[in-house]
Amino acid sequence: MLSNGGEIFRTNELMVYAARQFGLRECSVFTIANGIFVSAIVEGELYSCQVRHIPLTPIHLERVEAMNDLSRRIAAGVVGPEEAKAEVHRIRAIKGAGPVALTLASALGAGGFGFLFGGNLRDCAMSALAGLLLYVFILNFCNRFHIRKVMTNILSSVLVTLFCCVALHLGLGDHLDKMIVGAIFPLVPGVPLTIAVRNFMENDYIAGLVRLTDAVLVAGCIAVGVGCVITTWNTLFGGIVL
Questions:
Q1: For residue 113, which of 141, 134, 95, 99 has the smallest C-alpha distance?
Q2: Which residues cross the membrane (predicted)?
C-alpha cells in the first residue's frame, strides 16, 4: 500500500488489524513515507524487528484500493493468514494501464487542461499533440534507458515546451502559455501533493514532508525545463509573447 501511494495512517491500520486478527498481540509499527519499522513479541519469547525500505515509486491507486478492501476483510475476520498472503501476491501483480492507454490519456488530459486554462481549439490541439509526444518520449526513451526521475521531468518539460514554441512559430497555435500549461500538466505531481497534505492533517509530519519535498522537486524540474527553453528561444529567435 505504501509503495503505491497509500497514506501512512492506512498503512499503519492495515498492519495493526492484521497483527491483531492473526494472533500477534504485541506488535508496534512505525511508518514513514519510504520506510516501515516493525517490532513484535511472538509467544512471549522471540523479539523480532524488521526494517523495510519503501522507494517512492509511481503511484498505483488500483493496488491501494485493493489493499484497502483486503484490510477491511482482514478486520472482519473473513481472511486468514495464508489467504491474505496469496491476496497480497495477487495485488502486487496487478498491472496498470498499458502504454497506449497512458499515451492517449496524456494527450486527452493535456488538451483538456489547455481548454480549462482558456486556450482556444488550436491551442488545445497543440497541447494534446504535445501530451501525446510527452508520453511517447517517457515510455520509449526515459523508461527504456532508466533515466532518473529528476532528469526525466526536466527533459520531458524541455521537449513539450520546445514543441509548443515551434507550433506557435509555425502559426499552429495562438497562445503559448495555454499550450505549455496544458502540455506539462501530465507531469504535475497532484496526487503526491494531495497525499502530503493528507499526511500533515493526520499529524504524520515526517511522511508529509517527504512527499511534499518530492512534489516540490518535480515542480522545480518542470519549471527548470520550461524556463530553459523559453530563455533560449528568446535569445535565438526574439521575444515570445506569453
A1: 134
A2: 100-119, 125-142, 154-173, 179-197, 209-233
Average pLDDT, the chain: 89
Which contiguous run of DSSP H or E holds residue 104?
A: helix 99-116
Q: What is the pLDDT of residue 240?
A: 60
The set of residues, in sequence order, having a beta carbon less than 8 Å from that of 237 and lying 6+ positions away, is 169
Determine the Cα–Cα distance for residues 89 and 224; give it in Å rounded to an integer: 40
Q: Where are the alpha helices (DSSP H) in 33-98?
A: 61-75, 81-92
The number of helix segments (H) and strand segments (E) in the chain equals 9, 3
- Please give the share of the chain, as a percent, with pLDDT higher than 70: 96
107's CB contacts (< 8 A; 6+ apart) are 128, 129, 131, 132, 135
| pLDDT tens-digit map of 54-96 | 877 778 888 999 999 999 999 888 888 899 999 999 999 998 8
pTM of the entire predicted model: 0.83
Residues comprising the chain, all counted: 242
- Written as nine digits, the cell of 104 is 492517449
Alpha carbon distance 241, 173 (integer Å): 12
CA atoms within 13 A on the CB side of 143: 10
